[in-house]
Structures are given as structure tokens and as C-alpha cells.
Amino acid sequence: MVSDINRHVGQRMRKYRLAAGMTLQKLSEEIHKSRATVCKYENGEISIDIATMYEICQALQISVGKLTGFEDFSVSSREKELVSSFQVRKSPFFQADRLYFYFYDGRYNRMKDGIIDIHQSEEKSGSCPATFSICSVTGNGRSSEMYYTGNVLYSDMLIRFSFVNQCNPLEEDLLYIFNPLEFRTLTDGLLCGISSADLMPCAFKCLVSLEQMELTEELRQRLLFTKEDIRRWKKLNMLLIDNRSEI
73 — alpha (psi -120 to 50), left (phi > 0) or beta? Predict the structure, then answer.
């Protein structure tokens, strides 16, 4: 049963790799596996773990659904259940009604946190209304809170939030977070928008959690850009956030 699923996923993996014009060697380098291991994946000789499947989909620029799809695959209901376990709707980030948000604001040298409330419908459709509040401590020690409303849109690998500041409708923020395939309580994200301080485009590395976190020095360090981050971005000439949080 499991070997049939391995072969099915392997065949689809080969199909999309060839369609992308990518060699076995190139794909193995992208996912940090040996060429022999990638060959065994495609031949269905070994199973692909969840984290590696995520990396394969990123490298091939396809959704997990395309890699694990079984519409044309004759399997039992139990086999379909096993394959379906790879689908992102099993992710707790898809099911969450409340998320906790953290980023470091270098303009004011302080961490900020927030709460995202998602108003899920019973149908669990791909888009839901959401509200977003960001809290911080101002220079005089008083608490400041900004309130946003908007929508959340789910996809196989990313969740996108689109918010508008209720006090300033010209301020619109986009938040992209990874929808982790494995079960974890924390994931990385990128917050993009227009700075209210100087009306310039800005982007913040952020963490989004299923559980409330303490504003510790350890958390602050996780929110800062590292020298390795900057070296990678300079090489690619782009800013990116990838899903490398520890489980």
C-alpha cells in the first residue's frame, strides 16, 4: 500500500521535474540530498518525509497538492487518507482562529507584538475575514495599539493576510506566512507595507505563533536579520523569508 503511494508520488515528482527542465543533479542540490536519493524518490523505492516534500515543491515551484494528487490513482479509502495527510488543510495554521504575531521594529529599536483573529466559516473556505491588532510601548512608556481589518487567503504553502488600518485607510499591510506541512506552533513570515513614520515602503521579518510568547532577548535575536541572511539576499538581489524555524 505505502509502496504504491511512493511510486505514485515519485512519478509525479519526475513529471514536474522534467517539465521544469531540471536535472536530477540540480534538484538534489536544491533539496540538499544526494543524486542517488532523489533517484530513489522518483522510483518509489523510499518514502519522502514531510520536510523534504516541502523542499521539493519549492524547488519545482508546484503545490503539494500537485505532487500528492491522486485523482487518477486507483487506491482504497485508507490509502487516500494517507495521501491526504500531506494536504495543508491538516495544518494547525489553516485551522487556527487566533494567531500571535511578533516583529522587531528597527526604526524604534523595540519588539512589537500583535493578535490576528480569524473568523472561520463552517465551510473552511479558502478566504476568511480577519482582524489584526499591533501593540507596542511608546517612548513615554504608554501602550500604543493599531487596529486593522481585512482578509486571510489560504493556499498550499502560503497564507496571505491583507489588512487596512482603521484609523488610516491609506495604510494597507500584507502579511505572508508559511503554512508548515509538519505540525509546529511557530512559523516565519514577511510583513510588507508603507511606513507611517516616513511614508516609505518597508518590510519586516516576523514570527507567527499558535501560542503566546514572552518578549525575551532570545525572541528578539530570532527576529533580527543575520549576516548570513544579508549575504544570501545580496547574492539573489532580493529579500526573502523561508521556513527555517526550529520545530
Answer: beta
